[in-house]
Amino acid sequence: MFGKILSFFSKDIAIDLGTANTLFYVKGDGILLNEPSVVVVDRKANKILYVGKPAKEMMGKTPPEIEVVRPLKDGVISDFDVTKAMIQYFISQVLKKKRFFKPRIAVCVPAGITQVEKKAVIDACLMAGGREILLIEEPMAAAIGAGLNIEEPSGNMVVDIGGGTTEVAVISLGAISYSESVRVAGDEANEAIMEYFKKKYNLFIGENTAEKVKIAIGSAYELEEELTYDVSGRDIVTGIPKNVTVTDREIREALRQPVEEIVKAVKRALEKITPELAADILEKGIYLTGGGALLKGLDKLISEETGLKVTVTKDPLIDVVKGTGTALEEYKRYKKVFISW
Fold this sequence. Notes:
The chain is of the alpha+beta class. It folds into 3 domains: 2-140 and 319-339, 2-Layer Sandwich (Nucleotidyltransferase, domain 5), CATH 3.30.420; 150-184 and 257-312, ATPase, nucleotide binding domain (Nucleotidyltransferase, domain 5), CATH 3.30.420; 186-254, ATPase, substrate binding domain, subdomain 4 (Actin, Chain A, domain 4, Alpha-Beta Complex). The chain is 40% helix and 28% strand. The protein has helices at 2-9, 53-57, 80-95, 115-127, 138-145, 186-201, 207-217, 248-254, 256-272, 275-284, 298-306, 319-329, 331-334; strands spanning 13-17, 21-26, 30-36, 39-42, 47-51, 66-69, 72-73, 76-77, 104-109, 132-137, 156-161, 166-172, 175-182, 203-204, 228-235, 241-247, 286-289, 310-312, 338-339. The strands form 5 sheets. It has a 6-stranded mixed beta sheet with strand order 3-2-1-9-10-19, sandwiched between helices. Strands 13-12-11-17-18 form a 5-stranded mixed beta sheet, with helices on both faces. It has a 3-stranded antiparallel beta sheet with strand order 5-4-6. Helix 6 packs across helix 7 and helix 9 packs across helix 11. The longest helix has 17 residues, at 256-272. It is flat and about 60 Å long.
């Protein structure tokens, strides 16, 4: 009875605590926040200065005593105190004065998360103001958010490509039959682009610039028309600012290794699942979700490499938080998808 009273006076929250972006879904209100997982910290004063978009805009531009922190790496917490402060700030933004009691929080985590990493997520959310913490694996949340029928006795293959991890999973009867979490995703793609510019052009570019290049002309498969992009950075030899123009072919070459790792993970899954599940996937194909699913031609490449139909979901950027929120909204139906800790 008391739990029902708490639920009435508080707002349940679903969080996609991503390496690149954090999204909040508030029960009854939908998605209310989508911000970069970036925090600016004054280490000298031990004070948080900026969180989210303003913090990301300051990357590479701060004085020595001010640090831009990305508190999550490879899908898990790497800086506990900063993560806690970031979650606390975001909760205050989405709830404002709407709550009387602490909220129940559902958080999605990588399928390959360790017990230590789970505890860090739970403790950070509790200390940030959560009343009760529920965990759901990212590919499960993505499948629910994409509108797949996870409860049917039939396999659904989901590949969720985020900022820090790529989650490959096969789901049947409301449970994950096979999963692998590969720590190769959007961040590694950005790093590969930065390294390419260093080697080919002696040009040092920042992470934000690499991300812009990836979004603008990045691809995994040959495009019908050539794309070009002007990139500015610092010449490694002279130290003078320099501008170069690159093509989609060059960036495709830069991304070759991280893309190959994702394709290999998909193939490993197909090799390890049961023949019955393989037959289901042959019929339905593979579903791509997450920000990485938007890389031009990735669906074509995976389809060519596997011989299967590959579908990019309708809302790949929000599937995970949408699915986590749906599981909260329909808790009785989806109760068993939340994992124990």
